[in-house]
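ESCALATION

Customer reports they have been waiting on this structure for their group meeting. Please prioritize. Original submission:
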Amino acid sequence: MEIEDIDVQLFEVKVVEPENSKPASFTHYIHNHKNGVSQFYKKDALAHVKEILSKEYPENEITNKIAEEALQYLIFDLNKSVPFTAPEKPKFKFIDLFAGIGGFRLALQNLEGKCVFTSEWDKYSKQTYKANFGEIPFGDITKSKTKSYIPDNFDVLCAGFPCQAFSIAGRRGGFEDTRGTLFFDVAEIIKEKQPKAIFLENVKGLRNHDKGKTLATILNVLREDLNYYVPEPQIINAKEFGVPQNRERIFIVGFRKDLGITDFEYPEPTNDTVVLDDILEENEVSVKYYLSTVYVQTLKNHRARHESKGNGFGYEIIPNDGIANAVVCGGMGRERNLVYDDRLTNFKPITNISGEVNREGIRKMTPREWARLQGFPDNFKIVVSDAQAYKQFGNSVAVPAIQATAEKIIKKLFIK
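Update from on-call: job pushed to the front of the queue and completed.
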């Protein structure tokens, strides 16, 4: 068997069951062969190559030497179709926890950073991540095995971790009191790896979650137990950073105290004026995004019921010169961001709907429009169903706001 004759397509890795870390190790090795981080992934990467070659060439004995030669050969072929590649000469290294579809990664790569570890448990998000970055994230970060793949000596830890309450009644709200929550796993990694900086993102409600106890515990752990300088967290609104979406999120930034950093200023809003019309589809969109007459009436009745009770809850149609509401994956996420679009020429339904397609031009935004609301470029691949795409972009970070804040962090770390 000649190494040059190996079919590279055999190694187009698919997202598999979360307990199998070999494909993730393989893609992480391929992407980190230049920076010394590859040692953390090499053992499983070799095992993955041996498994595939043994199945494809059963008549050959696949030795470690053959697997190693194949691995080196594959490095130069498997990154060719990746839309978002790491910089050739990165200025810093970071890890991407609770990665989703890679909003943090996109922002920090734009700042010439190199991602050296990624974790995300959702298999559909992994598919999108792999399609855009050529890398399969590792799985459940609460598992010790997953944590064991995290390399040493990276500069920034990024995490958009889910919000959970802590059991801190009668206690000081320290490191041990967060056990059993996902923040505990983030804190455990910080404690073990000691990155220079941390960048955490969460919903705005974290500030008042459990009457403020949750945030207070997080800050206490970061400042006192882990010894990081953490300025007061700030609520950042995506609409102030170049996207027409009213999306407020809390950002928490921290620096290892031995670095001597004692001040930090979050980014000032940009002066960009962006409205919904700037992100709408340029061409006529499919009839499947247009609401049926029955559904439109249902939404109108729903809002009328709430208005009669003095509530403001209901659907909303965003004007072209307006700003979208926050895109979210549940509840009224899509119905709170309807648009008028009178360009439809074919009103024949292509999905099962009740009634007819409405003639008022009321439609949902498309997944691409949601991507643009979050600051994702148009060459970002959407490879999942519409339902999954809405969920993924709804759960994602707003890339421009993340990038503006990350830029401040990097300057603080490396520009004295």
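Sent to customer with the following note: The mean pLDDT is 89.
Escalation resolved.
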